[in-house]
Fold these 2 entries.
Entry 1:
Amino acid sequence: MEEAPPTGEWNEEDREAFKIPIENRRNFIKKVLGIISAQMFVTTVITAVVMAWEDSNDWFEAHWWIVFIFLVMMIIPELMLICCRNTFARKVPINYILLLIFTLGTSGCVAMICSSYQPLSVLLVAILTTGLTCLLTAFAIYTDTDFTKAIWVVLGFSCLLSVVGLILMFVDVPRGVAILISCLWLIIYGVFLIIDVQALAGGKKYSFSEEDYIVAALQIYLDVIMMFLELLKLLGKAK
């Protein structure tokens, strides 16, 4: 995301630098949504195929190490795209290749997790996630509040909750505490989705530039996936 100069501190050069024609912004949004749709399609197909395989859960338990391959496929491309935007995220076709690897890794993790839940339960959570995503997207677009201003606060809370989660991995956590943590993560990812949608639409303190279509798609896709997984923890029925 790029930060616009504070209100009242615009000069003519700033205005030209941040002035993006409405039609260009619309095309940018359509492009990002198209990429996200493709990512969701890939994830849905892979997850559906895995869940249709009756022995998938047993296979993943026997080959647990494969999760590390999925994580490497997720983390490395994500870091390359976000931390090195000028080098990788804005260079075709390397940006699409990295995003594809990231999407395949994420899809593998999602499919592996979903294989331990009942198919109907996963489907219902997916429908609920879709509805929640639509509601949050509409709220982000129509609200007058600029949530992008709070991005560093939300990042701070997410880092704090991550540390708490790492600590709790080594202790016996009561069911109520686990539910509370999942609810907090669900709220955080929901706020991240609002922030990213507003940054995509533009006109806020932080906005995606037209060259950041890959990063914008990656972040919004990840917001939705993480909301789905947290809802699955809360509402899903294990096999």
Note: The two ends are 41 Å apart (CA to CA).
Entry 2:
Amino acid sequence: MSNIEIPVEYKEILDDLKQAIMDIDEDRAVEIAEKIASQGIDPNLAIRYSIAQGAIGVGEKFDLGEIFLPHLVMAGDLMDQVSKILERNIKASEVTRKKIIVLATVEGDMHSVGKNLVGTMLKAGGFQVVDMGVDVTSAHIIQKANDMNADMIALSSLLTTTMPYQKEVIDDLAAMGIRDKFKVMIGGGPVTKEYADEIGADAYGRDALEAVDIAKIILK
């Protein structure tokens, strides 16, 4: 995402929007987004650069302990708000269906921090994220994925004791004859690439940034 070529005349305002998002400054971010829209700057460029890079900055601040979970929620809401302003200038002919990802922390696990960060980053990456929260059963996850006609199910587990519930979702999909309908990505503190391969997951995200990169690859 950092390799996007930015026209010199737009770089300052796009950097300003990126910084406003990193600062979670709603008034300034909205003001700049409105300016970008009024100046006819490519909205896709602003979304791919300013919002995506801003999300990375927010994630880095969180990792460093400079901001906390409530700030992540605020940042996610702000990025949604800014995206809607910028998307006004996207021609109807250019609008494509966003890939839908159903995201949840599995049954028995109440941890939300990692999941929320992944959700924020996926939204910034251009995905439609359906966040089901924490302690969600396999049946509810699969039902939601079916209802939303989702492209991917992303499962978080922060406890070794709840990792088997990631496997349960995959096993239940297979038992229902719909395993091939959804890509399944898993992640979380104790989760490994080896475990993902062992249970038949399609992908493993080591962290939020990697999760976005992998989702883009397997859902393109």
Note: The chain has two domains: 8-94, 100-219.
